[in-house]
Design a protein that fits this description.
Largest sheet: 5 strands, mixed
CATH class of the largest domain: Alpha Beta
Strand order of the largest sheet: 3-2-1-4-5
Order of helices and strands: HHHEEEHEHEHH
Shape: globular
Distance between the termini: 28 Å
Length: 190
């Protein structure tokens, strides 16, 4: 029973299965099953009580990202399927608190629905100029500011940027890379 609680604590501290096995001599298959069950429990909970971010005057940054490994020098295994993930981070937290969701399509209809569900009224949305974001203000009523990434990372006039969401992506992708891809579990990791 102590092994189960040790594995739960390691999962809560975002430690890898390998570290739990090395540090405490736990059985790899047992730890893997516990980690998967915890992801399932959290996923189920979030279906019933979704994350809400932002609020009156709070900036949330949005972006979409491709989650799959990349070949180096055209060597190694070919990526199976492209998995697009849409993310929102609340910049009032340090580091920014966020949520990610696997999306089938990066269309305005799909992404605006996620924004509407996750962002609280009064949120200010920062994004790049992806076409799917053009009607955020019109359809959802959120104040929406953009940065043109082909010109700047930070808009020199307005100060608008998406650096928090980009940093969030880097942390999440590193976590998935450490877990050796685990492509078939992407939605649970998100």
């Amino acid at each position: 029973m102590a092994d189960v609680w040790t594995a739960v604590i390691m999962w809560c501290e975002d430690e890898s299965i390998s570290k739990a096995v090395r540090s405490f001599g736990l059985d790899r298959e047992t730890v893997r099953k516990i980690y998967n069950e915890l992801r399932n429990i959290v996923s189920e909970h979030l279906q019933h009580d979704p994350i809400r971010l932002g609020g009156l005057g709070i900036i949330c940054q949005i972006d979409e990202s491709l989650m799959c490994h990349k070949q180096k020098y055209h060597r190694g295994r070919v990526a199976r399927a492209q998995t697009w993930v849409f993310g929102i981070v609340d910049t009032s937290f340090k580091p920014a608190k966020g949520c990610m969701e696997v999306v089938s399509y990066r269309s305005a209809e799909t992404l605006l629905e996620v924004i509407k569900r996750v962002c609280k009224p009064g949120t200010i949305i920062y994004s790049d100029e992806w076409a799917a974001y053009r009607k955020i203000q019109e359809k959802l009523g959120f104040e929406h500011k953009t940065v043109n990434h082909s010109l700047n990372f930070v808009d020199p006039k307005t100060g608008v940027h998406t650096q928090n969401i980009e940093s969030y992506w880097a942390r999440q992708k590193q976590k998935i890379k450490v877990m050796k891809g685990s492509g078939h579990h992407n939605s649970l990791y998100c």
